[in-house]
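2024-03-11 09:14:02 INFO queue: dequeued item tRNA-2-methylthio-N(6)-dimethylallyladenosine synthase, len=451
2024-03-11 09:14:02 INFO validating residues
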Amino acid sequence: MTTSSRRYHITTFGCQMNKADSERMAGILEDMGFEWSEDPNQADLILYNTCTIRDNAEHKVYSYLGRQAKRKHEQPDLTIVVSGCVAQQEGEALLRRVPELDLVMGPQHTNRLQDLLQQVFDGNQVVATEPVHIMEDITKPRRDSTVTAWVNVIYGCNERCTYCVVPNVRGVEQSRTPEAIRAEIEEIGRLGYKEVTLLGQNIDAYGRDLPGVTPEGRHLHTLTDLLYYVHDVPGIERIRFATSHPRYFTERLIKACAELPKVCEHFHIPFQSGDNEVLKRMSRGYTHEKYRRIIDTIRRYMPDASISADAIVGFPGETEQQFENTLKLVDDIGFDLLNTAAYSPRPGTPAAIWDEQLSEEIKSDRLQQLNHLVGIKAAERSQRYMGRTEEVLVEDQNTKDKTQVMGRIRGNRLTFFTGDINKLKGKLVQVKITEVRAFSLTGEEIPVLVC
Ligand code: SAH
Ligand code: SF4
Ligand code: F3S
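2024-03-11 09:14:37 INFO prediction written
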């Protein structure tokens, strides 16, 4: 079957890992001759890259799928693909639920999209969800941005947090080799990108599965070593990484971040709960004291560092007092950003079948209280930028005000200022901050003096 002039559309749900996977799959489809269609209803191939972290994420997919399945009855050559975490979780059950699907593929099969589609075009309905060793990909991702790029560093997760589906759907940890990672970053640098974000579910666990130990008994390959190893890649001006797990966040890593000029002073380290009993029942492997020590150490080395995190409220059995311990942690630390969620029982996870599930009312009430505090603390944290000069990497036009461009400061806050995107895209600009909001800033470009 010829694929030329066929059009595709990808809808992505979920985390940065899924977004990075979607870019790889878009690259594969374009290599196969598909062209992007902005309108999903004009596309010959529809791909949903799905997320199942919470119940509502999963439900969204089914409503989208229902519509496309109907369309297939009028347009039988429409190809419908479901990839990502719902695909992995549901596997064949998804075909029974939506028989119009052509391909169901788990995240570990991302790089195999072309092979799998070939089987579909040969007339098969295909399910690819068995665990595999993730192959290095030779196709080029079609990246959404021309300024910032994601680079996978470690796939999967070896933790067993009692609320979480990720280990079930993403499989065990698989680290890419430092050489493969560096080669990808070098390519990104050659293409003119300025910033990379290294990605992993627990990125600070990088390298545990790679061979080799140092004379002191440490793994030979760690995130710290990787940062040193990729730091001098030409063209790349900024390096970020996410998500970090408190269990693996070492002082050695913090020191490296302070020492390496390209590594931005922003750390995303989810804590989930501020209560030790809850943390234990979540199987997180640290106490709130340890978490606080990590943040203290970061601030000792980098006093201005931005800290963001994720937290869950309404975990089964969470008492009012335990919830207040979360509020207290948030109040004490003062996060620049906090992603909050009400606990959602997930199939196949231990906590989902525990007795002490809390009511939706309690969960949403706690979520509201926490979000209120988060807004106040983030606004307080923003104040420090007022009047200061910050380096902004310009990414795009401000969609709401075309006279402005937008980008991020090193500390990751979105920042707007008046300017021409054609001249500024991909540039690092010194911006004096004149207005601060909880999660974003506005400023003015400081002209560069030529002496
Ligand atoms: N690996 C990262 C986070 C991955 S999932 C870590 O360990 O921190 C992203 C976030 O989704 C989690 O940090 C958690 O806050 C949230 N999450 C995961 N499972 C959830 C569930 N069952 N209910 C509500 N939120 C959940
Ligand atoms: Fe989920 Fe825990 Fe793994 Fe994070 S560390 S992905 S929360 S199991
Ligand atoms: Fe969702 Fe899968 Fe990411 S469940 S949050 S897309 S790892």
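2024-03-11 09:14:37 INFO annotate: The pocket of iron/sulfur cluster (ligand 2) is lined by residues 157, 159, 161, 164, 166-167, 201-202, 245 (CB under 6 Å).
2024-03-11 09:14:38 INFO item closed
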